[in-house]
Amino acid sequence: MKYLIPLLTLALLLMSSGVHAQTQELSTRGQQIDKIAAVVNEGVVLKSQVDQQYEAVVARLKGQEGQMPPAQVIRQQVLERLVLQEIQAQRAERLGIAVSDEMLNSALRDVAQRNGIPFDQMPMAMARQGVDYAAYREDMRREIALSLLRQRDVLTRIYVSPRELEQALDRQASQADDNAEYDVSHILLSLPESATAEQMNQVERRAQEIQQRAVAGEDFGQLAITYSQAQSALERGKLGWRRAAQLPQFISEEVVKLEPGQVSPPLRTPTGFHIVKLDAVRGGDGPMVVEQVHARHILLRPTEVQDDATTRQRLEDLRERILAGEDFAALASITSEDPSSAAQGGDLGWTGPGSFVPDFDEVLGKLQENEISQPFRTQYGWHIVQMLGKRFHDQSDEVRRQRVLTALRESKVDEETELWLRRLRDEAYVEYRSM
After folding, report:
1. Beta-carbon neighbour count of residue 214 at 10 Å?
2. Which pLDDT tens digit goes with each residue over 317-376?
3. Is 0.90 topped by the overall pTM?
4. For a FRET experiment, which of 123, 251, 273, 417 has its CA 20 to 30 Å from that of 114?
5. Between helices 197-215 and 220-227, what is the axis angle to 10°?
């Protein structure tokens, strides 16, 4: 459903202004004041971009434990990340993936709301933190576009077969604590798609050497920054807290054998050789009995022709017609612009906590049974919603099944994303210049 919590997380929205495209400028004396760090197909990565990202990464790493890797190692990792971002941005542009001002402003409103800042005061608030608001907007526009590209190229193609789901449910039933969570770090040494036997042997030997250094006590995070070719390299290899089912299967099968602090032997997959460290484990079962709500809504989206005020007025008119006796479902089926619910008369079914974006949840939580809200805005457009009922429901089986299905999809995301990025990188022309 298009009003469900988006994949773009708050951490993404709050990232520092550091990857925006810059143009090569000349001073009044004709001296070059920026340099090209890499040529990427028909685009470039500038030295100033590398500098900005390097400073942000170093500032973050200084606040963490462990020895700081050499500056050149960090700069090379930053450059590789920017090259991959540029490749993705070019692909998004070729595919016509664009982020409208409306979509961008919705994301910015979400940032402002979560930080307790009025939307119209964001430029001033960010200026006090030394962040250029115009550049931040373009950074966010680019990140949203890349997120949409990944959804198109990776997420929509991830398939979990019924057999996989049933096997996962069977495995979970035999586990003592299926809610245990694992804090995992990871190093990837990737292989070219058409690697020779000699290349494979070389990478495997390097993986064994790194694993032995980690076992001997070297800082795993620094080894990840120095050697890992995964997207988590600059996060010291951290994958974060995940249930076993949310990890790629080859990792989950390994971490359950490890004690906190232990490092796995190199693991071979189609993407290369992986080294996994289990940092910590925690567990706990959440309640299966939840309060559900049953609601239906009508969604209208502003356009260039129909602005916010006009859209809101249309919904006010629809609300008055319903209060006067017209059928909500009939009007929703012909007016709502949410294709996933319009055919059901706007019916959203029975849903548990956190099913919708916060703005939607907040309005819904204040309604009495059969009450219809005033028009309100979320990042997806303008809504009116009717509360049809509430109940406490033991949804143990549904929750377990949905949780396992979601975890299986998530377990495939990292591996599929790495394979996708490797293909994009292999197909791109990249020429490194001065850093």
Report:
1. 22
2. 999 999 999 999 999 999 999 988 999 999 999 987 778 888 898 899 889 999 999 999
3. no
4. 417
5. 160
